[in-house]
């Protein structure tokens, strides 16, 4: 397996979003032929949990950034207003968003009996890319129970490539999907900050991929489909950033994405969600509503370390999604090849 | 029935959003006791169709504005990026969003065989308010078929009050829900422009309602619940406005809302969606991608007529939702009274 | 002098933005006939200082909100990016912005020798309304030294009406200009929060003013000019709000503005700047970049108190600008009457 | 002189923003020692004119995009609200913004006697970068007359490098400043569209520059200063784009910027202004306010051509600013070297 190393910062132990303490990832992969020989369920669900506790009762500070908005991600209106994330971040295919949101809602209602009864409602974040080249997306293969299963199987191990929501995705004409990376930012002599990233890659035209920056030799057998296509980028960190600061970090994802060769196509839903695990916000609290919390003074040094590391990490996670994804067969007998298989 | 008349512009023939030619509204009302005597399905779905043709193949120009974003409306990311609406605008309760989006997706897929196969995907707009005071929202009474039925029964008659998505809503402590109004803007000697508005009202504290502006005498029997709560405002027009101009119009909804007494509470999802039926945009076209279209030069006179009329119309639609809504019984034996019944 | 009292919250001791501890206001009024008998300098400068220390070295958290953007306010790009205010907020006429910004820059450079040499630059906020009905705005009567004088004469007394930047402004066809108000929000038994507001009012058509809500009898002698026109609204508070929370507060200004009768006209630069004096941010610091700061958990109760009080306070400040402004004569022999003089 | 060619689209005849018909550029360069031997005026002004007519009376459609907002550009509030540009776009150093805006105002007032008298006001766009490494920025060497001179000397020839506003700028540790490029997009067999770009480059750390993509060998003698620093990017086109579409184009500048090595540093004012010369909007008009105009239907093919070409063109303009800039001496005896001189 090729390995790559982008930029001047070290990665965490697993080079994975789960290097940010408490973050977990779960995948459910759907890979089934329908009775009709041309139809194939080649899709899935991926859940990113900001921490292991009750996500509704211990919210995390979060922000989103829309690189290009030709996409159907749900939940960003409230996330932007309040700067809070109170559910897992769910990823799936474009037409699976309702089913995944429904399943996640059922899960959260079951975990929290107060929701919709004695307290307010809950806001669920579901991102998507369009896997209809390989997946029979019109047949709506994703069901609510797949979302619940992805949440329940989440752990601190993160498989990459053609798994979970990444099962049917295509990137630069090759098999893409889930990729992850992390970066360690030195802070004091005995403490580092951690940044982690997970992408769902589904964009790009083969002619645009700057592959020679990453690997010597690629499989020439790419597919040529229109260059619309999307990426969902999730960023986690333990730096105590505010929602405004997280949005600034999220924007730097564009740098990493651009360096791979994307020009952010017209038909892309390129969307970033960033959260910090540092200052959790309780839903219920007996305390005064005045809190004391940690924050970062936005100085040139630390912010540029965070921004530069984010750009590197996103670029690496995208390339990793390509290097880890195996050749996959889907509907209409279509195959999308691994970039490194020969 | 009390009638009110706000501002200096005349309304259309029906004083209804369907005064904008081609716009249709459909309601499905759900009103059923569950086996448990305390649980009640007191909710519904409302569909607003921008025109009678194929909404995916003939898109309309649209914009959204977030007055306050504590809400779960879907589809705004893409609507904002492209300035286009390609589905009905669906309204329901907060936990019905997934089911309604799923049903609308099924309806649109059935109408358009190309979607998700030979052409791209579709973006569905679903707005919501929280009706959990009267409705057993945790039991998820809204199903996908309710959305399909609301679309299919849409017509140019618009019932108001405790119907469709408005069935379980509460406004200023009284029964609220669906309200509508329209305004006619003189343009030339033989042509007028039309503006229409439909609201789903679910906000406000009794002490804040400026009722004496509208009616002489009100039922004193309001409920006192927390002042969070939301409003969804849909604006239609036949003025050939661009998406930027529609957003400016949408912002003037805040003026009408403020005049009723709202201070736009912390817990509100106060969201506006505005569209114009004037310049339809084909999904498929054999023509050149250079179009000729009508547009409005933003001059003081016409824009101020549109803005002032929008403010008046939204205010009137909110008051109308109160005047038309009948006393309603819901879960836990709770009743919310009509503001005018005694 | 008529007095008014809007809403259910008490005002501070002076009912003035300077009720927020440390905030100061200074005015320079320019009222001079040019040699040409038709030309008149009827304008001025107003400075709002967030605190009495070095504003560059002790920044305050801030946000802006654009109600309508037909205006020329400077400095908002950086204020929005960083959530910080590092200069006085300056108000003047539309064509005085450059001179006032230049003067403020000179003042700040003189106070801070490091700026532009060993440290970075400085961002200055200057807001404006168009006073060209009374003021010979093309002759550029405002000079840099007027800005410096307004800063230097700032105190905790705030004169209202036709003073400073308010000298030539017109509101609802009557003499408008500077208005101020404050509100006290109960917090604990022995501590309150304070909100203060200062407006520069220059908008509205006489027919739209809801005057009967405020005063029994008005001077009928209003002027009738086009209904474009603007308002700048400055909000100060000692509540430890983040920049995102301050933006939410700033948005509630629209509620107060709407209640006076404005529909936010096409030609208006209606702009809000809000800051908190609670957590000052040092420009230079020997400390770690990790800070501990106070923050507010956004709960329904406290946020709705702040929002409702803001709406009331802005409405009252606008009405106060009318009640305090004296009949004023300007260019071309034009007079704009006080709303209460007969 | 090295030449570079980035991407698959051809450039216009001059590879310059003035390849877009009617666009003109003017520079005034200030290069004077002050009496004090350490102080140096090493700065200037650049004017970009969207067309050769009266810019106030024939406005062009425009948009802006803030890549990072640590900057002091003026005029964006109104440009964003109305989607219109009605002045030259002026570039200078950070503390020259007021003087340049003042001079441009004087120029526009002189050209248009109605402004501020019988019609409304005018909105001027001035962008800036901080040239204080070489320029004695605290001494405010830029005066209003420099802005007027830059406008008056504008032509369709565009000098690059250490000229105009670019005189004192530093990019990746080398002499930067003004760079330009253009791209031709095939439309029909006998018509092309044109895109042009002009940058003011003043950002980057030497270690981050991906120089080997562009030139074989560089001068090793870069300066090492903090990596904050900015870029102003101006994009012109004759494609009939709306303001929303222009904003989408402006966003693709980030792609080109990222590919040079920038991670968009914390301290950057990275700001894009884009305009189209296709549909001019008259300030005064006897016609109906309903216009017929050309527009582009946003299809994958044409939009991706425009987006990809924009990314390439911005990247090339940045590199060109480095290749064209000559070694420059400024305050405190400081020198910044040309990247290609040895």
From TrEMBL, chains A, B, C, D:
Top-level taxon of origin: Bacteria
Any matching Pfam family: Peptidase_S58
PANTHER family named in the record: BLR5678 PROTEIN (PTHR36512:SF3), D-AMINOPEPTIDASE (PTHR36512)
Family: Belongs to the peptidase S58 family.
Protein name: P1 family peptidase
Annotated source species: Cytobacillus gottheilii
């Amino acid at each position: 397996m090729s390995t790559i190393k982008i930029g001047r910062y070290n990665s965490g132990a697993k080079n994975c979003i789960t290097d940010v303490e408490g973050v977990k990832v779960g995948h459910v992969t759907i890979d089934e032929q329908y009775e009709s020989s041309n139809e194939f369920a080649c899709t899935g669900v991926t859940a990113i949990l900001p921490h292991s506790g009750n996500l509704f009762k211990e919210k995390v500070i979060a922000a989103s950034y829309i690189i290009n908005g030709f996409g159907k991600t749900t939940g960003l209106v409230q996330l932007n207003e309040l700067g809070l994330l109170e559910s897992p971040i769910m990823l799936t295919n474009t037409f699976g968003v309702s089913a995944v949101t429904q399943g996640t809602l059922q899960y959260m209602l079951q975990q929290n009996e107060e929701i919709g009864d004695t307290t307010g409602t809950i806001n669920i974040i579901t991102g998507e890319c369009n896997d209809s080249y390989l997946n029979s997306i019109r047949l709506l293969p994703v069901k609510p129970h797949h979302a619940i299963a992805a949440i329940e199987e989440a752990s601190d191990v993160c498989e990459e490539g053609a798994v979970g929501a990444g099962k049917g995705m295509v990137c630069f004409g090759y098999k893409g999907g889930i990729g992850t990376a992390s970066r360690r930012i030195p802070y004091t002599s005995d403490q580092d900050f951690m940044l982690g990233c997970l992408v769902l890659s589904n964009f790009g035209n083969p002619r645009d991929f700057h592959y020679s920056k990453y690997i010597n030799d690629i499989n020439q057998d790419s597919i040529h489909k229109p260059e619309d296509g999307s990426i969902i980028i999730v960023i986690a960190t333990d730096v105590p950033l505010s929602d405004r600061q997280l949005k600034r970090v999220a924007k730097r994802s564009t740098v990493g994405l651009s360096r791979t060769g994307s020009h952010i196509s017209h038909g892309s839903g390129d969307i970033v969600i960033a959260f910090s695990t540092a200052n959790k916000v309780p839903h219920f609290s007996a305390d005064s509503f005045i809190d004391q919390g940690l924050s970062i003074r936005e100085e040139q040094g630390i912010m540029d370390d965070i921004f530069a590391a984010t750009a590197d990490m996103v670029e690496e996670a995208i390339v990793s999604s390509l290097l880890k994804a195996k050749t996959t067969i889907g509907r209409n007998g279509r195959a999308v090849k691994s970039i490194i298989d020969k």
